[in-house]
Amino acid sequence: MSTPYTTVLAIPDAATYCHLRSASGLSPKTAEAAARGLPNSLFAVQVLQGDEIVGMGRIIGDGGCFYQVVDIAVLPAHQGRGLGKLIMREIMRYIEEQVPASAYVSLIADGQAQNLYAQFGFTHTAPKSVGMAMKR
């Protein structure tokens, strides 16, 4: 059975990034923030249906010690079709091939997304540590 989806290992442009984040329910980012931040991605994957970008995921970090999985987003019309898993498989391939064994790979799981990430070996850090954030 063939899938109507393909992946491209590339950073989305700022407009696409902003659209995917807001349309999928993630917090919106300004075009300025996206234009500044996206070129600093260590890895990015996009999911396409034909020519339309319907999902994405990225890894950011220092390229040696610390990595963070971010921006896992799938448009609502395409959710529930395994695209989150598809994105995470590409991310995990990058982690397995490029990330040093001593590196710390983290992410923030919103809601039930923790169930997806657990399938790829991510575990809760509490009570040993807890995630903290400051939003501007």
The major pleated sheet works out as: 5 strands, mixed
The backbone outline, from C-alpha atoms, is globular
> What is the average of the pLDDT values?
95
What structural class should be given to the helix and strand makeup?
A: alpha+beta
* Number of β-strand runs: 5
| Cα end-to-end separation | 46 Å
- Spatial order of strands in the largest sheet: 1-2-3-4-5
Radius of gyration: 15 Å
Q: What is the share of helical residues?
A: 25-40%
| Uncertain residue segments | none
SSE succession: EHHEEEHEH
**Percent of residues in β-strands:** 25-35%
Determine the number of helices (DSSP H or I, runs of at least 4 residues): 4
Which key terms come to mind for this protein?
136 residues, alpha+beta, five-stranded mixed beta sheet, 4 helices, 25% strand, globular
Structure description:
Helix 3 (83-98) links the parallel strand 4 (66-74) and strand 5. The chain is 29% helix and 25% strand. It is of the alpha+beta class and 136 residues long. Helix 1 (14-23) crosses helix 2 (31-37). The model has no long low-confidence stretch (mean pLDDT 95).
Brief sketch in words of this structure:
By secondary structure, this protein is of the alpha+beta class.
